[in-house]
Each structure stands twice: as C-alpha cells, then as structure tokens.
Design brief:
- With 150 residues, the chain is an alpha/beta fold.
- It has one domain: Glutaredoxin (3-Layer(aba) Sandwich).
- 33% of the residues lie in helices and 23% in strands.
- It has helices spanning 46-55, 70-86, 101-106, 133-149; strands at 5-8, 15-18, 42-43, 60-65, 91-96, 114-119, 122-128.
- A hairpin with a 2-residue loop joins strand 6 and strand 7.
Amino acid sequence: MTEPLHIVCPHCDAVNRLSQQRLSDQPVCGKCSRELFMAKPLDVSSVRFARHIERSDIPVLVDFWAPWCGPCRQMAPAYQQAAQRLEPMVRLLKVDTESAQDVGARYNIRSIPTLALFLRGREVARQPGAMDAGGIVAWTQAQVQAATAR
C-alpha cells in the first residue's frame, strides 16, 4: 500500500492527505470542501509559495514572471494550457517577482519568465525564457521523470 500524498488546497492552503489513486477523481479539500485541482495556475504570495513548495508531495512548477514583461504576458496563455494538461500530477504556481521580491531573490531569479520545478521542497530543474504549452508540458514531464529516477 502506498503512502498518502500531501496536497495543499489552492483555496484555503490546508494540507490534505490523499492517495495517489484518487488524484484524478476531482478530490475536494477536507477543510473548505472546494476542489483541490482547478486546471489553472495559482497566483501566490511569498507565504503561500512557501506552503505549497514545502508541504506538497506532488511536483510544483513555478512561473516566475512580472506584469511589465512582454514575454511573460505572451507565455501566460501557454502556461494556462499547460496547467490543464499537467494537473493533477503537477501543481502550477505563478509568482509575480515584483510583489514577491523576496522569493525572486531567494531563488536567484535573474531573468523572466523563468520556470522552476520543485519536488518535496527542493528545486530540481530550471528553464529561463518563454515557451509554448507543448514545450512547457514536455519539459516538465521530462524533468519530473529525471528527478524521480534519482
């Protein structure tokens, strides 16, 4: 029998325990009763970022971006499409590096957009530059596979 996964609620940030087999069953939060997966990226603040990165047992893909960045705005629809294809196996977050400067500094984000993949609280891969939806999905799946094979 496999250990339950910890999944952070995108609405109330409660940590839920869920079997891997139930990920695709449209699970709901035990605290707020809202869906755990919305098939769209979640905009997070510094505090919420830390909770999702540190407490989630599924991989977390983060788009570090800024509102003034043209390539970031161009990539936003592709990131949305990628979320529809990657969830519930991967949680997608967006971090505005202007409003969460501490997170950008902590992870040494020097160019945007930058995608970073986290697994069990640790950054395992990074990709700077805008990508299309297919590229985001392919890159993420390859990085998850490589990180879990280690």
